[in-house]
Amino acid sequence: MELILIPIIAGFTAAFAGKWGRWVALLGSVTALAITFGFLNKFQMGNGEFQMIWDRIWFSSAIHFKTGIDGITMIMLLLTNVLGVLILASAINKTNRNPVLFALIVGMQGALNGVFLAMDGIMFYIFWELALIPIYFICAMWGEGNRFATTLKFFIYTFIGSLAMLASLIYLYNKMPAGGTFDYKALLAVNLTETEAIWVGAGILLAFAVKIPLLPLHSWQPDTYTEAPTAGSMLLSAIMLKMGLYGLIRWFFPIVPEAVLFYIPLIIGAGIIGVLYGAIIAIRQTDMKRLVAFSSLSHVGLIAAGIATLTMEGMQGAILQMFSHGINIFGLFFAIDIIQRRAGTRELGSIGGIAKQAPRFAALFLIVVLGATAVPFTNGFPGELLLLKSVFNYHTVWGICAGLTIIFCAVYMLRMYQMSMLGKEKGDVYLFPDLALRELGLMGITVAMVIGIGIYPQWILDICGPSVHKTILTIQDTVGVLK
Amino acid sequence: MKSLLIIFIGAIVVLFTGIKKPEKKSIGLAIAFLVMALALIPFDMMGKLPWNFEIKYAPINMVAFDISARAFSGVLILGTIFILGLFSGSDRKGSDLIGLVMFSLCGAILMTSFTNLIMMFLGIEALSIPLYVLAGSKKSDLRSNEAAIKYFLMGAFSTAIFLMGCAFLYGSSKGFDAFSLHDMSAFVGHNHMSPPLFTVGISLVLIGLAFKVSAFPFHFWSPDVYEGSPNRTTVFMAVIVKIAAIAAFYRFFPLIIGEAQAVTWGTILACISACTILVGNIGALRQKSVKRLLAYSGIAQAGYLLMGILIAPEKGFQALWIYSLGYVSANVIVFYLFNKVSAGGDETFAAFRGLGRNNKGAALVLCLSMLSLAGIPLTAGFAGKYLLFSSAFSDYIYLVIIALIGSAISIGYYFRIFKEAILMDGEARVQMRIVDILLLGLAVTMILGVGILPGFVIQILQF
Most buried residue, A187, A347, A396, A451, by CB count within 10 Å? Predict the structure, then answer.
């Protein structure tokens, strides 16, 4: 409750606070992070049920304002609030003084917390939509290039997806006997025939597949990521797309277990094709932001495939990888932003040799790149390993295809690093100052997390393990025939 | 009933005390009367009829101020207060136009409370005749004259059709009152008959009403008339006329058609509603003038409102009421800001340019009302749409799917307005008086209040 309200109130205050706006926003964001740590402290490990439930009647007796935290939610809250603070801090620099930007970022943090905390179908839908509004304005107001058309396309794509989800939720509600509610447990308890489940599932999946994005619904993504301002790209790729993946785990599979056998091959197929497609296209990119956008498409495809295997390894690996991917992508976008502001461009062909000028930056950037490439002892490795194992167990051929991702990823990431940082000095990099204190701090935190999670990933698996186990059991109860 | 009398007396008083004064000095008095009428609504229970359409109306009562009548009159009076307060009058001498607005409101209130076709007809006429004059009130403007003629011809035409329908109904059931018509409908429905007089009568009455709500295929007049009329009249048509006609529509169904034939006429209405939603939303996409765009958006909204009539009366009433609160507030805000920024004569989207930079508050309010019209969560528009869609879902699933597609299309044009207002640079500037700020604040409170806590607002209806 307070996790949702405090950032949103901070957002409204910040918008009208003039030059103090950014500090108000930062304060709200940090408070939310502190509350999250408070929840983590109270959180009972080893308990797969929802804890700390807060439940009030909202619209009518059918729609409640109900929040609860289980292991999966806990990880997502940590991700949202840690990255929320980092993104906000990275956006505070001398060139940007408009308080509305910070207000929108912190408001978005509140809405995202709402998405992850919701235990009521309509409440989930409301926050899902609400998260879209700030990002629309961030991209449309501070974006570059053809930003109006791109952001409108993005908005309409996601809006159609979420309307389909709303229709599915209302259908489920109408299936209940009189006095039904949109409560999570009540929605889970509805029994559907397989055909119904496929249609209801299609509606819900459409919303998530657009957000993730799964092929072939990805066409909004590269343009939006490239043309959004850095803070917008970070929010979109580090947190927002996790909404879709989280939705698959929490809402899609448990609600329509009857249709699981139909959808598993579809999602795994779309995911793995996305892995290859994204990776191959990323290799050819020269715009660094676009490259990262396609790499994100590739990583996310693997996560979706891992979730769809419905095994412990797959789901836990997915959650771990969602967390790591968020941190890595933040680091990458932040580094690209630093390069762009100093060298004036982010085209790979026109810069080079930055490492000579800025050795500290080069070292930290290298660790983030290695994290994204899933080198052992960085955060990308354990998650990717679990995901690949689960896909491999599902089907050897898919596993081999997915395994290529590590090779491709090394190719495009190292190529990006090599062309920008190493080699002869090229472009406006002669006066490339090394990191300032604020940047050093942010990069330092990122790198510390990259290595920290790489060395000891078990704590994330411990938090989410029991809840994942319970989710899989719920699905298997209905299906009964799953591996 | 008391509020109706107060508004009527108020209109006469305003008309005569304002003969020699400039128009804007009479507005305060008019608003005072309207506020008094609004305050009396909770006490206004002629005949003490509870919320229940099953009760047989005594044939001597030609109007009944039951809960739905009171709730909708409340919305209408509130809307008129917004309109009179926000669209300040000119320096011209004489308060005839304000008097006409109030007379028209009396007609609107009759339309929400009739139990007899004669009263409904009186309501429609009392609503429309002042509007013909108001549409042409910019006497020197050619387009205003054109709008007045068009509106008059369309209005006269639709009234004639409506009256013809009444005559047929009288011929088939020997009465104008809901009591005998309801019995006739039940008789017809239970015996699976289709007597031509009765069927044709009902169709003609529905056509007459469809003209007033601008539902497909009788929507074509509204863009032209909206575009030509002076802003205050346009917003009155968009808000008051539409809600009053929907309230009449809503009353007509359970009161006269009744359970027995609900399915037959419901199916026809569902088709009309679906077409209206599509035509309105698609038509709006290609408009260049803001007023034409709002006219098409109004057509689309009429389509959503018609869905409320298909639902079981009590649920439909709640949904319609919530929806109309959001609709009134959002439209009033948009028209007000448009009126201010288009003072230079530019009536295209470009008029809004630069609002975000020059007036942050006004731009925020504009966004909020656009989000509400588009039906984004936590605004009144979403609460209304949610109630409508979820109630209609079990019986009219295809209609709901079409309505959802319509909502998705509507993003395309509502967002164009904010794009211009917030992202483009320009000279748009709004200077607000304190009264304007108060009224806009009230409208925003309604959008957010209804949007965030609709459950609480619905409980108000059950007092």
Answer: A187
